[in-house]
Amino acid sequence: MMLEASILRRIETAFGHDRGFPQPTFYAFANALRFDLGGDVEAVGTRFLQAFDRARAIARALFANSGMLTAVAPHYGYDWPARHRARWQDTLNELGFTMPFDGCDRTRADDDPELFCDWYSADFGNDLVLIDALLWANIARELGVTPKARWLPRVFIVDFERRLILFAYDDRGMDVIAMAREPLQPIYDQFGDWLLDYDRARMDERFAARVD
After folding, report:
1. Is it the case that residue 205 has pLDDT exceeding 80?
2. Has residue 185 been placed in a domain?
3. pLDDT per residue as tens digits for the range 147-157
4. 44 CB contacts (<8 Å, ≥6 apart)?
5. Cβ 3 vs Cβ 16: under 8 Å
6. Is residue 50 included in any domain, yes or no?
7. pTM for the predicted model, two decimal places
8. Per-residue pLDDT tens for 173-186?
9. For 78-200, where are the E strands, in sequence order?
10. Mean pLDDT score, 139-145
11. CB 3.0 to 4.6 Å from 159: which of 110, 124, 164, 206, for a disulfide?
12. Torsion angle, CA of 11/13/19/20, rounded to 10 degrees?
């Protein structure tokens, strides 16, 4: 994959979507797992720790054989987000993610031409500290824990070469995507107890029966 290609072109080439990652991501791909991170835990500190620990364990297993990863940050808004971008990049630096995000590609909403989404990206080596910083930022955003990146877009962690996506959308859950079943099969087998029950039947149909 040519790193100088635009982020939207890279997403289209690897995942077949020319306007960035669709939402909700889980339902847009055949090979997808959705995990319950926080579960029924209500105490804020305990809930955060459980969600963070689960996300870290899954990320380590998913990216064990990955080399280069990319953080993809879509920012939605009605004006130029330079002020917000500087703010969330500073907070990410404080969390330990020190890689700079490249200039953005822009898409616009079909039903609201004034609403845009700017897609930022940062390539980085498979570094556990950097992965943990991104997971922390996503999981802490709606909980009363600090530090947090209040202005940070929800960040996707992507392996473009292996065509894998990990997206912890908040303390509730996380989507893991692949373009083939095989990379997700061991994740399903190892972490099946953490799958979200609401979507478990869909995942079981794909992975329990080993369907190609």
Report:
1. yes
2. yes
3. 877 667 889 99
4. 143, 144, 145
5. no
6. yes
7. 0.92
8. 999 999 999 999 99
9. 102-109, 112-125, 156-159, 164-168, 173-178
10. 90
11. 164
12. -10
Strands 164-168 and 156-159 come out as antiparallel
Amino acid occupying residue 91: T
**Residue 142 one-letter amino acid:** E
Interval 87-111 mean pLDDT = 83
The pLDDT value recorded for residue 3 is: 46
Report H helices in the chain: 7-15, 44-62, 82-95, 128-140, 185-190, 200-207
DSSP state of 44: H
Taking CA 196 as the corner, what is the angle to CA 45 and CA 207, rounded to the nearest 5 degrees?
140
Structural domain includes residue 135 = yes
> Which residues lie closer than 8 Å to 33 by C-beta, 6 or more apart?
26, 175, 176, 177, 184, 187, 188, 195, 203, 207
- Residue 182 lies in domain: 31-207
User: Looking at the 3D structure of the chain, how many domains does it have?
Assistant: 1
Integer Cα distance of 182 and 166 in angstroms: 16
Query: What Cα–Cα distance (Å) separates residue 53 from each residue in 8, 60, 103, 194?
Result: 31, 11, 32, 12
Q: Specify the 3-state DSSP secondary structure of 11.
A: helix
Whether 8 is in a domain gets the answer no
d(CA 140, CA 171): 7
Tokens of 111: 């039903």
